[in-house]
Each structure stands twice: as C-alpha cells, then as structure tokens.
Fold Membrane or secreted protein.
Amino acid sequence: MKKTFVMVVLFILPIVAYLFFASGIHNFGRLPVLTENVSDLTAFTTDTHLKNKISIVGFLGNNVDQKKGTAFNLNQKIYKHFFEFKDFQFVMLVANGQEQEVEKLKKELSVLADIKNWKFVYGNASQIQSFHKELKTDIVLEDDLSSPYVFIVDKDLNLRGRTDDEDEGTKYGFNTISVAELNNKMEDDVKIILAEYRMALKKNNAERK
C-alpha cells in the first residue's frame, strides 16, 4: 500500500495537476471578442492604423490638459510594462486644435517612459463620435468628446473585453481613473491578449519548421 501511495504521489498527481492547469490556461487563454470589424481609422488623416496592431484606444477629446491624469495612470500602470512588445500601441483620439496640449503631454509622459508607441490621432467631433459608435459599447462619450475608458482592439480590428466580469457582466472598456481597475483587471487582460499572440506566433514558427 505504501508503495502504491508513493507512486500515486510521485507520478499520478503531477500529471493530474498538469492537465488541470493546462486546461485552465487553454480556457483562460483568449480574451472574448465583443465587437467585430472596428474601423481602421480610415476616416482620419493619419499614418496610424489599428490593423495588425494590438491597440489600447482612448479618447482625450477637446480638453487634453484636464485629461492628463488618465494618461499618466495608463502610462504608469499599463504602458510601461508592455510598450516593448512588438506591434503594441496606445492610440488616443483627440479633437482638432489640441496639438499644443498634446505636445506638452508627450513631454511630460516621456519623463516617465519611452513614448514611441503613444500615438495621437486628430479629428473633428463627427469623426470621433462616429468611431466611438463603431465600438458598439455601453459607454458614452462625454460632452468634450473624451472618455475615462480605454478599449483593447486586436490585430484583426476586433474589440476585446470580458463577458463574465464579476462587477459588470460584459466589460467593454477599462476605467483609467481607477488605479485598482487598471491593476486588477486591465493589466491581466493585456497580458492575456499578448500571450495569445505570442502562442500563435510560436505555433506558426513551429509549423514552418
């Protein structure tokens, strides 16, 4: 009996544990698609595109100076941890006329991190509102065309989020005002989507070999 027990502990339990965790990783390994076919910023005059990029999309609107806090939260809690990942970018939609304020913001952000993957796209009210509607979320823009929420858009122009969030059920975006939400939810979801693409890349490379 002792030998049997030892055999179970040494060989069987590790296999069961491996299968359990492997199954968990598989089930947890994809972030749900909430909206398909988001526009690739084609309505804007810009060199920035969402296609073939993993993008964090936000709305700074027409009063960038008052939205600096949300940008700093994102920079510190999310961007600094992931900006070196290939094809990862932050895309902020800004109202025309805010160019000087954005330049000031960029200088302040650059003190804290390399901001090469922060992108700012300018447009008028109609363009910004139209793009926001394409996300098809339950979140509305504020009167100044801004939002404290940011959104994850994948390389195939799909909005990603949660379908079983413990607080909201379906979770379309992440509240940048809440440091706790950035730490406890958004960081996890960014890790998931980046890991998803890492795994897909490894699989493709292995198949080529």
The CA atoms of residues 61 and 198 lie 33 Å apart.
